[in-house]
Structures are given as C-alpha cells and as structure tokens.
Amino acid sequence: VSVSRGGATATFTSSECWSVVLGNVGFSVGRNRWRVRIDRSSTAYLFIGVAARAVNQSTFLGGDEHGWGYIGDRALYHRRTKARAYGERFGQGDVIGVDLDMDRGTLSFTRNGADCGVAFRDLSGELFPAVAFYNLGQSVTLVRDGMDCPGAHVAVAGAPSQVTVAEVAAAADVLRSLASSSPLPRAFVADAWRDFAAWRAGERRRYATR
What we know:
Blueprint: E1 2-3, E2 9-11, E3 19-22, E4 31-40, E5 47-51, E6 67-71, E7 75-78, E8 81-85, E9 95-101, E10 106-111, E11 114-120, E12 128-133, E13 139-148, H1 165-179, H2 186-200
Antiparallel strand pairs: 1-2, 2-13, 3-12, 4-9, 4-13, 5-6, 5-12, 6-7, 7-8, 9-10, 10-11
C-alpha cells in the first residue's frame, strides 16, 4: 500500500489479495465522524469501516473478531461472517461517511450524504478507521473537510492503556481479599463509593474498554 506524503490518500499496489490499512488515531469515546472518497476501484471488493489494533491485516475487514466492515456490494462483515445486506452499493466516485459513536457503541455509514442506518452495535475498546483493498490500483482519500472527531487523543481512565502500577497493586489486594473471604480494603470501598456517587450525579460516564 502506497500512502501519500500528507497521509490522506492510500493506493493499493498489489493484486487479488486482501490488505487492511488502519488510521493512526484510535477512538474510545465520543461520536466521531469522517468521510472516505473512492478515487479508483474497478470492482466492489473494497471495505470501509473500523478495526482494533489487533486486527489481522492480511484478510478482509470483518475477517476476524477485531474488524467491522462495509463492502461495496452492500453487505456487512464481522467475525468472518456476512452479518446482513446493508445500505447501497458503492464504488469509484462515491463518498462513504463513517459515524463511530463510542458513547453508544454504534457504527453507521452514509453514501454520498444519504444515511444508511446503524450497521453495528455493542462496539467497545479502542477502534481505528480502516479500509481493506483487494484489486491493484484501488485508491481512497480521507476527506479533510467536515471531519468531526472529538474522541481523538482522549485517554479514558481505567482503560487498559491507562492503568498504573498502583492500580494493579490495589486490584491484587482486592483479589486476595475475595479469595480469602476477607473484608475488602477500605480504600477500595471508599473509591468505589465515590465513583458510584459521581456517576449517579452525572459527573462521570462509564465506557466499555474491552
């Protein structure tokens, strides 16, 4: 895959093999929206969607449990299974909008501005913009105008990537207490109550991180 100097355009330089390309910024929170223009594609064998960092990049998008993809012949794929028919066919000249709402755990698409509806639900963790190529010369461009990604570079407290050594030690203390049927550590109970009270007051949100 050849990527332009500005990083907005990706072109496939192989032929008849799947290759997944990930964006360099992932999202764990917020409603994040971007658009992808199909500059060149001689077939419908092109996926647009999202994926976790652990995705298999040598298969199609949705070819494993870490990817969620919308293919040009109007179908959705996840866990190497066709989930259902969806939206409209797309190809060269079309602009596909991606709406990743990590607050609600949903992924939706538009085609040339027309809403295709919710494609996937129950998404969590950190997900990246993704495209999967198959045919030689396929090329797509990230449309800079109209991008709205408030979740970019937002760290979620308690997410695996943000856990501190002290938090791991505290979790170990809790597990030891549970294993021995002893009372839970007072600091843990106090922290849990403060977090619950803040959530009840609307001062905090809960995010699924795995």
